[in-house]
């Protein structure tokens, strides 16, 4: 039976392969390092970062996006890239159409138009008193229905000519003394 000599490592080889052996003779293999020491957002295991909740990336440096971008955008390197129609750090702000054309304020995604403007994006000029429902607004001016006139269609007019012996008052012909009829021509 042959005897083998016990395998002995030289101290230099021990230090080269197991640097932790320098102080003690209990040698342990050195753990591989993690990139950027996991950026302080995770723990290192066998050379790989195990990231804390929300953080990601090989070195746990990518921060989570706030409120998961409200499901209205994508998280890119810890920042929300919002879908069209949304803005804000977490895509929670609803944008207004055409930014209200700078003629109003955006409140919860709807335009509150400045005086003189109307429409979903404040694109139309408004008319005084909305023409009092006696006409329609075209480019900021009232086009009055028959029987009405004035800048806001408040003045009633007579649908017939009152003639030379009558005067239209509040939509009716008022005849001079001694004349009568729809157009004040009878005496």
UniProtKB/TrEMBL annotation:
Is Repeat found in the keyword set? yes
Instruction: Name the domain of life.
Output: Eukaryota
- Disulfide bridge partners, by residue number: 65-75, 82-91
Q: Name one Pfam family in it.
A: EGF_TEN
Tell me the GO BP annotations in alphabetical order.
Answer: motor neuron axon guidance
Signal sequence bounds: 1-27
Q: Which terms are listed as keywords in the entry?
A: Disulfide bond, EGF-like domain, Glycoprotein, Repeat, Signal
The question of whether Ribonucleoprotein is a record keyword is answered with no
Q: Which InterPro entries match?
A: EGF (IPR000742), Teneurin (IPR051216)
Q: Which PROSITE patterns match?
A: EGF_1 (PS00022), EGF_2 (PS01186), EGF_3 (PS50026)
Residues annotated as domain EGF-like: 61-92
Its recorded name reads EGF-like domain-containing protein
């Amino acid at each position: 039976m042959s005897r083998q000599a016990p395998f002995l490592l030289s101290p230099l080889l021990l230090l080269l392969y197991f640097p932790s052996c320098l102080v003690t003779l209990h040698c342990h293999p050195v753990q591989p390092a993690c990139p950027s020491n996991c950026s302080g957002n995770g723990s290192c295991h066998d050379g790989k970062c195990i990231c804390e909740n929300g953080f990601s990336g090989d070195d746990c440096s990518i921060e989570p996006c706030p409120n998961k971008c409200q499901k209205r955008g994508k998280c890119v390197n810890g920042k929300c890239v919002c879908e069209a129609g949304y803005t804000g750090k977490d895509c929670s702000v609803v944008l207004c159409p055409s930014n209200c054309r700078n003629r109003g304020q955006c409140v919860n995604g709807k335009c509150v138009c400045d005086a003189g403007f109307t429409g979903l994006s404040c694109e139309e000029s408004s008319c005084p008193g909305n023409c009092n429902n006696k006409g329609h607004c075209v480019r900021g001016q009232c086009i009055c229905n028959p029987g009405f006139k004035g800048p806001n269609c408040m003045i009633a007019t007579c649908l017939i000519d009152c003639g030379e012996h009558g005067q239209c008052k509040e939509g009716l012909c008022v005849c001079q003394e001694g004349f009568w009829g729809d157009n004040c021509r009878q005496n």
